[in-house]
Write a structure and sequence with these properties.
Largest sheet: 7 strands, mixed
Distance between the termini: 92 Å
Radius of gyration: 25 Å
Number of strands: 22
């Protein structure tokens, strides 16, 4: 006989755990089912270990600036990569604190097994039978894209699921896929002294859509490692190596290949076809990003599984939304936060709000600033980068920005707050700017936009309300 639960959650990553937290606020009549490791994949295999590696790589790379600062002895420095990789894993495990097996406090409410939908209210759990539910939350996450033919090369093909488990890094690595993850890791490994070549079928890297900003990033990354862009890469077997050939005809002999071509939603075998709703060419149902509901069904899809905003903080938000709506009498449509995308390369590659590509064809005004001469950046030997700010023509309302900047991760949040608050260019210009700081570099770009708006002579300072004091003679 099948059992019945108010909610069944499939998946225990960022979205699933966030959904569980909301469900437990209302009921203990739930079941959470997960195949494989429990806990967040991003923190365990992506965002956290990669940043530990990047910080070490950047620290070691700073030796190249020592002479400019009057510091000697840079040639005597070395790096112990096995010790670094051990630190990556140690810090990763300390940061995540996510259980890799069923948490003790869930008891028989959690099952380690595969689950498959049999319909909008029915789930079949491997070796446990069928469960019916008032609501089902799908939070099955994602996995690295890996072309089937590459499996023949065995453990010489790495992904972010396997890279950080290595006791040492190969001395020659081809990184295929120059999106955010590929750029971050390719540059970091090159800074550690690894011979790295980067390959991508696209001409752009790190997801940048603004051609001017993208060109600045490509130039900076290409100064540290060869890039082969604009055509797919081919892998073949060599003498004790893998031969990776790019579209430019260049061949690179690699000890290993890091496949960094993105991640795909884990929906194979999930039974989405049983829901009776239209599926895309990739087998994906339409999901309302404000409610996480699939159509008008009692089924919600959150996190990387739906492919809408596949990143940890968005997955947590989507799990929160799904968990609340799964138990609600009627859906609440939640406003999503301003979109942020950050590649932790040097300089950081950032997109906030609407991208250049999304705004094509609209009436906008663009302000730009070149950071190659920015005083504070010059002091730190990080004087490179560009920001382009997009604002609504006429009103000057901030719409988005793309930038490659030192400390761009902090600029991203500055603009995210401004855009989400509905600020316009004049609002931002009226905010305080300390001296000397990197943020001063924004004012030139903002002032460019202000000159294209009504009342181009308007002061940066906001008008004060009437004080009641008489005017000075």
């Amino acid at each position: 006989m099948s059992q019945h639960k108010r909610v069944v959650i499939i998946g225990s990553g960022s979205a699933g755990i966030s959904a569980l937290r909301e469900v437990r606020r209302e009921t203990e009549d739930f079941l959470i089912v997960n195949a494989g490791d429990w806990g967040t994949t991003c923190a365990a295999r992506g965002c956290m270990p990669s940043k530990v590696l990047i910080e070490a790589a950047n620290a070691y790379h700073r030796r190249h600036d020592f002479e400019a600062f009057g510091i000697g002895g840079a040639d005597g420095l070395s790096i112990d990569i096995p010790a670094l990789m051990e630190r990556v894993r140690r810090m990763r495990d300390g940061f995540t604190r996510s259980p890799r097996s069923i948490p003790d406090n869930l008891g028989d409410k959690a099952i380690s097994a595969r689950a498959k939908l049999l319909g909008p209210n029915r789930v079949e759990i491997e070796a446990h039978g069928e469960v019916t539910a008032d609501a089902i939350i799908l939070a099955t996450g994602s996995s690295p894209v890996l072309p089937k033919p590459w499996e023949a090369f065995g453990n010489r093909i790495l992904t972010t699921d396997t890279l950080f488990e290595l006791p040492d890094l190969p001395r020659r690595i081809a990184v295929i896929g120059m999106g955010a993850i590929g750029v971050e890791l390719a540059q970091a490994m090159a800074r550690l002294g690894i011979e790295v070549h980067g390959f991508d079928a696209l001409d752009t890297i790190a997801g940048m859509t603004d051609p001017e900003v993208g060109a600045v990033l490509r130039e900076r990354i290409a100064a540290e490692l060869p890039l082969h862009l604009g055509a797919g890469a081919e892998i073949s077997e060599g003498d004790s190596c893998l031969i990776v050939k790019g579209g430019d005809g260049v061949s690179f002999e690699a000890d290993a290949v890091l496949a960094a071509m993105g991640r795909k939603p884990n929906i194979a075998g999930l039974g989405l076809e049983s829901l009776g709703v239209p599926l895309s060419d990739r087998g994906m149902p339409e999901v309302d990003p404000r409610t996480m509901r699939i159509g008008d069904l009692p089924v919600f899809m959150a996190g990387d599984a739906n492919g809408i905003r596949p990143i940890l903080h968005e997955a947590a938000d989507e799990g929160h939304i799904a968990g609340r709506n799964a138990l609600a009498a009627s859906d609440t449509a939640y406003c999503r936060r301003t979109s942020l995308a950050i590649a932790f390369s040097a300089p950081n590659a950032v997109r906030v709000g609407k991208t250049f590509k999304e705004l094509e064809g609209q009436e906008i005004v663009i302000g730009a600033a070149d950071f190659s001469k920015q005083p504070r950046a010059r002091m730190a030997e990080t004087a490179h980068g560009m920001i382009r700010i997009y604002a609504e023509a006429g009103s000057g309302k901030l719409l988005g920005t793309e930038m490659v900047l030192p400390a761009g991760e902090h600029f991203a949040h500055l603009f995210g707050l401004a855009i989400q608050a509905g600020m316009d260019v004049h609002d931002m210009l009226a905010m305080p700017f300390y001296h000397p700081v990197l943020e001063e570099g924004l004012r030139g770009a903002l002032r460019q936009i202000a000159k294209e708006l009504p009342d181009p002579g308007r002061s940066d300072l906001a008008d004060c309300p009437e004080t009641g004091h008489p005017a000075l003679d």
